[in-house]
Amino acid sequence: MACYIAFLRAINVGGHIVKMEPLRSLFEALGFERVATFIASGNVIFESPREDTAALEAQIEAHLERSLGFKVGTFLRVATEMPSIAEHQPFLAAGFDAEAHALWIGFLKAPLEPQVQQRLMGLGTPDDDFHVRGRELYWWCRTRVSDSKVSGALIEKTLGMPATFRNVTTVRKLAAKYVVPG
After folding, report:
1. Please, what's the b/e burial string for 49-76 (b: 16 or more CB within 10 A of its CB; e: otherwise)?
2. Does residue 182 register a pLDDT over 60?
3. Is the pTM here over 0.85, yes or no?
4. Looking at the structure, do residues 109 and 147 belong to the same domain, yes or no?
5. Residues 92 and 173 in one domain
6. How far is CA 111 from CA 52, 135, 137, in A?
């Protein structure tokens, strides 16, 4: 039985308010086990014997859209992937200071094609740097995100695909809480 973390897009933002208990119930209705939520920003942890993450993502998205009345992008990661995602530090050599800067991790459905990655890098500013590793996009924002010339919407438009972002602190807490050491 695999443990998954679902990063949901459009939960508790933009007027799409969903309480965590009903969200857990929606996942349980799909037959998932040990369902839990982590903070109210659309992070759902569950267990399933199924291993086809793309099929699971599609199943969850269809069920949530039918149940909630709006599209909810779903980005699954197996819990064992989380430590590597959370601890990857692409900006250390550039003088990154975790206390002074925000590091956001964007979850994607698939790795970026080289030409798409090149377009993303073109969004870089003196305040914003990007790094891509597998299905994750790391965004170093040296100012408040609200003050940046870059936004999640601009990133998605540039990528031509949806993404959902979490602060590295949230990702690290999820990795620590849901990954049992070997």
Report:
1. eeeebeebbebbbebbeeebeeebbbbb
2. no
3. yes
4. yes
5. yes
6. 17, 5, 9
